[in-house]
Amino acid sequence: MKEYNYNHFSPEDYAHDSFAAPKIGQRAPDFTAYTLDGKVVQLSDFFGQSVVLEIGSLTCPVYAGVLKRMRRLQKEFTEVTFLLLYVREAHPGERRGQAQTNKAKRQRAQECKDIYKDPRMVLVDDVSGKAHKAYGLVPNSVFIIDRNGKIFWRAKWNQPRELRENLRRLTNNQPATGESHSELPGALRPRAFLYGGWVAVWDFIKGFHRLIWLKFLKRR
Q1: pLDDT in tens, 13-48
Q2: Residue 85: CB atoms within 10 Å
Q3: Cα separations (Å) of 163 from 30, 51, 196?
Q4: Cross-strand pairs, 142
Q5: Model confidence over 158-189: pLDDT tens digits?
Q6: Do residues 196 and 59 make contact, with C-beta atoms less than 8 angstroms apart?
Q7: If you count DSSP H runs as helices and E runs as strands, how many of each does the chain have, helices first?
């Protein structure tokens, strides 16, 4: 199995159809993370309130692509706590590789927040990826967690339109629409590749056709 903090993107990391994350109705797995100033927090500290937990990183073009819409949602649903879980770099390269220490990862998360002007509170996973592994290892998944600490809705790839609809349902005490079945990212911001560097760009170019081929084979 490829090591968690890979140095080169490969489509095999994300081409699988399974999404090994907590399902709708299950208790949200608790985890320990760091704030940007190094304080230790747990996800359960936020139980008792409605939470949107999104996965992201500086070099993830999908996280960067949906961020504008996530800002709008945060302004619209002021009673909901929006959190970003900072995980491994989706597309590491010569400019920004994988962080090797928890401190370096917090610094990278701060850099991400500053570059993208992300208004959310950031929880930084440890370098072994414990929280990321508990939530399915996809680079830009998203979860709604209700006040009881249970998964209300989830999406393998963040789909802001579906997220908005389910936040509306949550606040109106209505059931979720059901799990998002989209296998495609919600949006892309290609500039994010360049934060990794040209190595990251080249790794994606090399892997793109193989990624499409793997998807084609699984549909046959």
Answers
A1: 776 556 889 999 999 999 999 999 999 999 999 999
A2: 23
A3: 22, 12, 28
A4: 54, 155
A5: 999 999 999 999 999 999 998 887 877 878 89
A6: yes
A7: 6, 7
Whole-number Å distance between alpha carbons of 87 and 5: 10
HSE of 172 in the Cβ direction (CA atoms, 13 Å)? 10
pTM reported for the whole predicted model: 0.93
Phi, psi at residue 126, to the nearest 5°?
Answer: -75, 170
Residue whose entry in the numeric block shows the structure tokens 């010569």:
94
The tokens describing 27, both together, are 């208790």
Q: Give the CA distances from residue 169 to residues 13, 71, 93, 173, in Å, rounded to whole numbers and listed in that order.
A: 33, 19, 41, 6
SS3 109: helix
For every residue of 131-177, DSSP letters joined together read HHHHTTS-TT-EEEE-TTSBEEEEESS--HHHHHHHHHHHHTT----
Alpha carbon separation from 199 to 2, 86, 97, 193 (Å, rounded): 18, 22, 10, 9
Structure tokens at 141: 């998944």
In 3D space, the residue among 125, 124, 152, 154 whose CA is nearest the CA of residue 141 turns out to be 154
